Amino acid sequence: MMEAVLAHPWDAAADGWDRHSTLLGDWLHEVTSAMLDAAGIAAGSRVLDIAAGAGEQTLAIARRVGPGGHVLATDISSRILALAQSKLRVAGFSQASTRVADAQALGLQGAGFDAAVSRLGLMFCTAPLQALREAHAALRAGGRFSAVVFGPPSGNPCIALLLLIARRHAGIAPALPPSADEPGSLFSLGRQGLMAELLQHAGFVDIEIRTVPAPMRLPSRLHYIEFVRSAGLPVVQLLAALPEAAQRTAWDDMSAQLARFDMPGGWSGPNELLLCAALRPQSIDFQAPTDRRLQPGDDSECIS
Q1: pLDDT range class, residue 203, cuts 50, 70, 90
Q2: What strands lie across the sheet with 266-269, from one edge to the other?
Q3: Taking the CB of residue 154, how many other CB atoms lie within 10 A of it?
Q4: Residue 302: pLDDT band with limits 50, 70, 90
């Protein structure tokens, strides 16, 4: 029997993200609600959901906008987006649709959305400024944008620890400095002030960035390891080239190191997210500042 051909690396994590929808919904419930509030999403709104993944937050948007509104969910992975589409269909949300698209090449200029959001997707873009410009172009004048990205490694010690251990077992030197990880990685937008700077250069105004604690509470660290093994593509990819036995050793090492976050009756992994909100100006005469240091490269691509 032939295996399905994966069109994009995130296709491999699609089933894992889908299987853990309840876990993700519980973990990100509060910050997701805050993101939708910051974007001004209400009944009748037309909303663009960028890098929507398996669509857990898309369902929340569809409920908010109701039958008089609309939500378009986009993602670069056709496989993960098909799972979102299935969820929306089962829920009976005819006000929702999907479109396979790279966040950096949405092709939605002039679409006139009231709001655009992205939950834990923008940091995987190697040219995030271009992705923000695409979001800006898809909004109507006065439309709102809101996103959630990971903060710095210091605020996300579990993820930082897993990446460090995976790199060591894979024979890859750790990224230096840790606070400025490589473009397109989990912490690429966590540096203080970076998201505000990018939003400004993309043409947004009324920019607000705030830190939101988001601990992941699970029955045990083994539940966390299982989640990462099935859905944590950045970690999984680091170990992919290793023999099976070496991979098992790496995962056992990670589990042992995560014991420091064991709690009475369970496990709690600290996370620090950045909630970003901004507005597309009403005036068409507004000119965004230019800075060549923030221009995306010609060969950049979004990997989520």
Answers
A1: very high
A2: 216-218, 266-269, 262-263
A3: 13
A4: very low
288 φ/ψ angles, rounded to the nearest 5 degrees: -70, 145
21 vs 48 pLDDT, higher one? 48
The pLDDT tens digits of the residues spanning 213-227 come to: 999 999 999 999 999
Separation between Cα atoms, residue 66 and residue 96, nearest integer Å = 10
Q: How far apart are CA 55 and CA 71, in angstroms?
A: 11
User: What crossing angle do the helices spanning 56-65 and 78-91 adopt, rounded to 10°?
Assistant: 40
C-alpha triplet 210, 62, 218: angle, nearest 5°: 55
Does 7 or 122 have the greater pLDDT score?
122
pTM: 0.88
Residue 245, burial from CB neighbour count under 10 angstroms (0-12, 13-18, 19+): exposed
Which pairing describes strands 272-279 and 205-213: parallel, antiparallel, or unpaired? antiparallel
Helix, strand, coil shares, percent, the chain, to 5: 45, 20, 35
